[in-house]
Amino acid sequence: MRVLVLGAGVAGVATAYYLHAQGHSVTVVDRQSGPARETSFANAGHVCPSYATPWAAPGMKMKSMKWIAAAWLLRQDTPLRYTPRLDPHQWRWLARWLGECNVARYAANKARMGRIARYSHAQLVTLRERLGISYEQTTRGNLQVFRDQAGLDNAGLAAQVLKDNGVDHQLMNVDECLAFEPALARSAIAGGLLLPCDETGNCQLFTQHLAEWLKTQGVIFRYDTAITCLRSDAGRLSAVETATGTLSADAYVLSCASGSFALGKQVGIALPVLPVKGFSITVPIAEPDKAPQGGIMDEALKVAISPMGDTLRAAGTALIGSNNTQVRSVDCNTPMRSLSTLFPGAGVLGHARFWAGLRPMTPDGAPIVGPTRYPNLFLATGGGSNGWTSACGVGRLAADAISGLPSEIAVEEFSVARFT
Ligand SMILES: Cc1cc2nc3c(=O)[nH]c(=O)nc-3n(C[C@H](O)[C@H](O)[C@H](O)COP(=O)(O)OP(=O)(O)OC[C@H]3O[C@@H](n4cnc5c(N)ncnc54)[C@H](O)[C@@H]3O)c2cc1C
Fold this sequence. Notes:
The chain is an alpha/beta fold. The protein has helices spanning about 10-20, 60-75, 90-100, 105-130, 150-165, 175-180, 205-215, 260-265, 335-340, 385-405; strands at about 1-5, 25-30, 45, 80, 140-145, 170, 190-195, 200, 220, 225-235, 235-240, 245, 250-255, 275-285, 295-300, 305-310, 310-320, 355-360, 370, 375-380. Helix 1 (about 10-20) runs parallel beside helix 7 (about 205-215), helix 1 (about 10-20) runs parallel beside helix 10 (about 385-405) and helix 4 packs across helix 10 (about 385-405).
């Protein structure tokens, strides 16, 4: 079959890989000049099957309101910020998100995110072994750190959930945290939770290597090609209009991150995918002895830190209501503060590169994958805050659905139909 993959982020390129492996003739289309130039470009790099958690959680309504109020009234640097817009899509999404903030929905959503994250991790390991791809990955486990006793108490609860779900983990006191990650500032932490199965890696490098390999195998990449319109005819997707002409295929995969909403709408598919802006800094390592050896999650500031080659990446903050990727250095204060207080002297902060990306978020945190009401249009989008972690699983599930193969985990629970 001739398949057009719309979007060359990590999810689109992973989908192209599995489609190619299943014998299809694949073309990938993207408006950028190369792969992974948007949200997959400079994310925090955590591949976290054990950590995968929805943002819609019990207690988040209150917490969000406090953060938003502090950001507005006190101009504080909070993990969540919100700019209201006259946009029905934003309001509908927020109403749905609030509806997910209860114990029952949280438990169901976390379990579902965990299923795709673990499946995706297994796919990633197989893929990298098969192709010999390396992407500055670390595989020693990620450490969640807590800055105070309250955070540590919550970690006790999280540990119980992990135990119930059979997820490997270890609660650690300060000495144990320092034995695992010697460069951590002792005075900054109260304890930690080690997740030995979690990893880090440079998502952009991974996607770029995978795209380069696919090119050698005959997969076509059409860059600098903005998709302007999806066309349907007689109940099927018939063509894709681009700035440089019309493209058609036997099947299509929509993998345009938060851009999927506008494109889906053109053919009557409502995708609750909202851009939630986040920021990262990338700094050269100043002194390797002072830098982390693996992934760190700073729970209090909601910042994830990863070593990436001779640099350190720190990323966080959720800004709802911004559709652009403009970034000012002040937007990156929280990642900067997290890195400099947990690992003082590790990075050359004066040489930080600042970046912003738009997480393609669904209200329940899980991606949207699989068929639509058009028999030849499929989805691989909505990876949200975990889109790097879930990309290979999303790609494999989407390809299986197109090929009519049975999927190894239930694709139905990632269907867009769950929102209707
Ligand atoms: C600050 C931050 C930190 C993060 N940290 C992590 C993390 O540690 N772990 C994790 O798992 N996830 C993380 N994420 C989330 C992760 O980066 C995303 O979920 C993931 O990169 C999404 O991949 P994607 O392929 O769906 O989207 P993208 O990489 O954005 O790809 C979509 C592609 O579609 C193209 N496109 C869109 N519209 C059009 C159009 N009209 N025409 C042509 N092309 C179009 C774009 O150019 C783009 O290349 C983070 C995100 C942010 C912002």
